[in-house]
Amino acid sequence: MKKEDKSAIIEQLTGLLNEYNHFYVADASGLNAEETSNLRRACFGQDIKLVVAKNTLLKKALESKGDFSPIFNALEGPTAILLSNVGNAPAKLIKDFSGKNKAGKPVLKAAYVEESFYGADQLDALVAIKSKNELIADVIALLQSPAKNVLSALQSSGSTIHGVLKTLSER
Questions:
Q1: How far is CA 108 from the centre of its chain?
Q2: Which fold has domain 3-129?
Q3: Per-residue DSSP letters for 104-154?
Q4: Threshold 0.70, pTM exceeds
């Protein structure tokens, strides 16, 4: 590969890393053509960008972006990069997809989520991380809960008072 081609790929990888907030490094080797196509479709459906790159080029792209040295140990063997703006989406995809195929792939090697580094053994923790939209929905539900309780108490007590007054007026 020519030096110009390598530098173009490094620039492209750096642009992708800047475009997405979170990325996962996984091993997707051993998948046949149909399984690979299904993985790409699943990624597309969840707005996850799947890119296969040489480890040395990815390492240079990461070096140009900042200090990503904890990821460098995972850059051995076949590497696929799953990029997403939702922190837990690639983890859920990896867990679901690897359980459905014979090869048990893709396998998580490392991840960069919410400005933190995660290793291969922390897939379940990554699945459990709530996305920004899920956290906002939880906060809104918590804020609405007391107001709903007060309104229902006022409505029920109003009908109770009305019932008592009606009974007293009939007597």
A1: 13
A2: Alpha-Beta Plaits (3.30.70)
A3: ---EEEEEEETTEEEEGGGHHHHHHSPPHHHHHHHHHHHHHHHHHHHHHHH
A4: yes
Is the CB of residue 22 less than 8 Å from the CB of residue 86? yes
Place of tokens 């890119």: 51
Residue type, 28: A
Residues 35 and 21: their CA atoms lie apart, in Å, by 27
Backbone angles phi, psi at 103, to 5 degrees: -75, -15
Q: How far is CA 139 from CA 106, 151, 155, 167, in A?
A: 34, 19, 25, 43
Domain spans, the chain: 3-129, 130-171
* Alpha-carbon separation of residue 21 from 24, 96, 115 (angstroms): 11, 22, 8
| Bridge partners, 50 (sequence order) | 82
Pair 25, 110: CB distance under 8 Å? yes
Please give the single-letter amino acid code of residue 93. L
CA distance 52 to 156: 61
Provide the 3-class DSSP secondary structure of residue 77. Answer: coil
Per-residue confidence at 6, pLDDT binned at 50, 70, 90? Answer: confident
Q: Which residues, including other chains, have CB under 8 Å from residue 72's CB and lie 6 or more apart? A: 59, 62
103 vs 21, higher pLDDT: 21
SS3 state at 3:
helix
